[in-house]
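Re: that backbone. Tokens:
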């Protein structure tokens, strides 16, 4: 008999702690591996040399479960693409872990300082 195995959701990747317990779900297995590297403090190259004071990644409670925390990325443009993606990036039950991940992601991939333009040169 054919069927689906495992959880059916938009979050397909899983991050495990040192004891093999699932601590976070991510959009893809590749993103989960990158997030695990970020959480472990491994060397990951910084993206921007002109960071803005505005955060690109932030944590919000999940709409479906108030105790669950979701890490979101602000929508980016083609001129300033977000390294970890836009929208819902990862979800976890551990609020401290979500805040730590968000802070580390903002350090590694900050929003770039926007150019100041005058007149019709909006791009």
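Recovered sequence:
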């Amino acid at each position: 008999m054919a069927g689906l195995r495992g959880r059916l959701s938009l979050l397909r990747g899983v991050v495990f702690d040192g004891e093999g317990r699932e601590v976070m779900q991510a959009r893809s297995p590749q993103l989960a591996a990158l997030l695990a590297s970020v959480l472990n403090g491994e060397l990951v190259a910084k993206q921007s040399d002109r960071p803005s004071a505005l955060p690109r990644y932030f944590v919000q409670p999940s709409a479906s479960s108030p105790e669950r925390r979701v890490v979101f990325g602000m929508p980016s443009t083609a001129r300033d693409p977000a390294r970890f993606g836009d929208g819902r990036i990862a979800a976890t039950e551990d609020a401290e872990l979500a805040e730590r991940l968000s802070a580390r992601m903002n350090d590694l991939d900050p929003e770039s300082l926007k150019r100041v333009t005058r007149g019709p040169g909006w791009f």
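Strands lie at 13-16, 22-26, 57-61, 69-73, 87-92. The radius of gyration is 17 Å.
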